[in-house]
Structure prediction request, 430 residues.
Amino acid sequence: MCVEAVPPPSRSLTRRGVLAGAAALAGTLAAAGPVAAAGNDTTATDRRAPGAPGRPGRLVIRGGTLLDPATGEVIENAVVVIEDGTVRATGRRGDVAVPRGVEVLDAHGRWILPGLVDAHIHLSTAAEARDAVRKGATSARSGSTSFYQDIAVRELARHSPALAPRLRAAGVFVTPNLGDTVLADPDLTPLAGLKDGVRTADALRRVVEVNVARGADVIKTRVNERAGLPEQDPLAQVYSREQLAEIVAAAGRRGKGVLCHSYSEQGCHDAVMAGVRSLEHGVFVGERTLREMRRRGTCFTPTLTAIAGLAESSDPILAERGRAYLPVLERAVLAAHELGVPLAAGTDSSGGVVDPIGGEVELMHAAGLTTLDAIRTATTGAARLLGLERTAGRLTRGYAGDAILLNGDPLTDLGVLKQPVAVVRAGVLV
Ligand SMILES: [Zn+2]
Prediction:
């Protein structure tokens, strides 16, 4: 193990300075004004300009069939009143007072659901962020980006909700080989000189601390190598339980949870015992680990979409890997669900292609969940993982005015979730 010292981070970089940079990147700095935002996001930096196109909206959704994923309750001929980006009232038409002069979205013949949550997505561009919203993910958790783009995307979402999902940003990946990410922040560049990569307690803490200084909401790390690269063995372990515990402790001191890329049963077990908040992928997670997850409340984000996607790869090694892994992962998902491990839907979309989060819900159902339980993995379940259980995943009073309209009944055919006919984000029709 490497013992080279890492110089202390510079004091010149402040979170405020970085956020200003992020806003400038997003092209929204000029529009920023001192307007208090609707109170259901969690950071004091939430400011929007009066009259800006992305301002949280007033909208009435009227006439569709509303599903509440929390209760499974269905209201026909429903009304949802959204003001300042927040749901003010929900109920049967005639039972709810509708304010005058508000734009109405006619939902007759449609199903109305809360906007979906993608608990694992890599949003590195404005186009990807917009695409994710259009495909129904109105909230999301980042699985990391190479140069802190996700932090700018989160700010973009605050200024212009229709352009990006409400995001929990992860910053950069805590991984042994940072590659070009050493250039993402001057305080990371000293790590490029470590012969053994980011492995010492000092180095691991450094990446976590720089992420937090840059405004990360969560920390993303790994215990195993990647499945999506044919030359890597996803069952090979890259961090020990002790190293993962170091990352979890550094994140925990700043109130941040850790999501951990994992494949092997031993890797999953070490990650869970180290105290991560959620296992990502987790293909070979075994029963002893699932029981521990249940005990601790650790969440499982299987990213079935990504594993199913491997099976479609033109690379024969990856295609074989995907075909072999998918049924194993499906069994793990069902076992987790039956044991009471919380499940969250995540597509693991990256690199310019955004998979619809509704497809992950379909795959959860294919793994054995009922349609309602599958919908919960992308609504109430994922919202809880993101700490948004009072904001996202439902369309009742006080929740965010994020909704999708569907062309049919998702309780009988989940296929409709992949192609919402309309998306509303903070009361703004996307
Ligand atoms: Zn990922």
